[in-house]
Amino acid sequence: MNCIIIDDEVTARAIIEQLCSKVPSLNVLEAFPNAMKAIKYLNQNEVDLIFLDIHMPDFNGFDFIQALKNPPKIILTTSDSQFAIEAFEYDCIVDYLVKPIVLPRFERAIQKSVAIDVKPTESASDSGNVEVSSGNDLYVNIDRRLIKIGIPSIYLVEAKGDYIHVKTEDKNYTVHSTLKKIEDKLPDDLFLKVHRSFIINVQKIIDIEDNSVLIKKDVIPVSRSNRAELMKRLNLL
Amino acid sequence: MEQPNLLYIDNLSGSDEAFKEKLIGIIKMEFPNEREVYFKNIESKKFKEAAENVHKLKHKISILGLEKSYEVAANFENNLIKNSEVGKVDFENILTVITNFLTRI
């Protein structure tokens, strides 16, 4: 199983790596000091298992899980048992290890993760054509049906040839339309065209680095001409 | 007062002396930084931030086999979350004990 480790403590990462080295079926690909770096990695790489610390500054373990569209199996590692009930509300969480982690308990968690089959969230994708806007909703024509999409749930629109991909919190839609058409239907205060192929929901930005923004698991390029407008929109400290 | 030990680290390392040395080195490097950040926050009465620091230090306390001290730290963390400094002296005594231990090993 290919795995990654996310923990802001160097000591904790070293201990989990050592524990992993004692289980031949585990292959540690990377260890990250924070969730942001891990999200960027997961955007490009697939893993089978994540060892995830809950208690991290800024972006904690649960925030991280919610940011993943199809989370792999996750074993939580924490110094507290108080989050156990909340942890098992997530299907992807296969076990919960309280620090300091001992080898027999660690091995049991791995056995559990092998035995449990985590069903990935169904990634729906429909194909159709645009678009009537009504207040807070956008209607897209898919297979001669007008499908309602809640505008605030849209986090990204990407142009792909004659189509646009509309990504929302729970479903993706492929619509025969142009970026210009949908841009006109979306509220200016919430959405911004950051690149000739991308419109983003500014409220869904996780972080910004150089010439890209991270939205959910998508790293989106920001063209130089749109960067100033993007920065203007942010509530900068 | 309860004294730190290396039982957990020894068990984890087994015969892997290189890992044991590496882990102790990491703790020696990480602990003083975490302690310093804690003192800065507690002096500035930033209780929420100090609670975060105590949370992180709790892991080191447990690694060093300080079971009772772990409870003291956990209670102090909860008090800090409620903007109370009750348990500060006992917690800081634990930090002193660990600091002395780390200089000896």
Describe the structure.
The complex is a heterodimer of chains A (237) and B (105). Chain A is of the alpha/beta class and 237 residues long. Chain A is 27% helix and 38% strand. Chain A has helices spanning 10-21, 35-44, 61-67, 84-87, 103-115, 179-185, 224-233; strands at 2-6, 27-32, 49-53, 73-78, 93-98, 125-134, 137-142, 145-150, 154-160, 163-168, 172-176, 191-195, 198-201, 205-209, 212-215, 218-221. Chain A has an eight-stranded mixed β-sheet with strand order 8-7-6-11-10-9-13-12. Chain A has a five-stranded parallel β-sheet with strand order 2-1-3-4-5. With 105 residues, chain B is mostly helical. Helix content of chain B is 79%, strand content 0%. The mean pLDDT of chain B is 96. The chains are: A alpha/beta (237), B mainly alpha (105). At the A-B interface, helix 1 of A face helix 1, helix 2 and helix 3 of B.
Short description, anyone?
The complex is a heterodimer of chains A (237) and B (105). Chain A has 237 residues and is an alpha/beta fold. Chain A is built from 7 helices and 16 strands.
Q: Quick one: biggest sheet of chain B?
A: none
Number of strands of chain A: 16
Percentage of residues in helical conformation of chain B: over 70%
How many helical elements of chain A?
A: 7
Q: What percentage of the residues of chain B does DSSP assign to strands (E)?
A: under 5%
How far from one another are the termini of chain A? 42 Å
Shape type of chain B: elongated
- The total domain count of chain B is 1
| SSE topology string of chain A | EHEHEHEHEHEEEEEEHEEEEEH
Placed side by side, the strands forming the largest sheet of chain A appear as 8-7-6-11-10-9-13-12
| Helix content bin of chain A | 25-40%
Poorly predicted tracts of residues of chain A: 120-128
Largest interface: chains, residues each: A-B, 17 and 21 residues
**Count of strand segments of chain B:** 0
Class from secondary-structure proportions of chain A = alpha/beta
- Multimeric status of the protein: heterodimer
* Order of helix and strand elements from N to C terminus of chain B: HHHHH
Total of helices of chain B? 5
**Estimated share of beta-strand residues of chain A:** 35-45%
Report the mean per-residue pLDDT of chain A as an integer: 85
Q: Structural class of the secondary structure composition of chain B?
A: mainly alpha
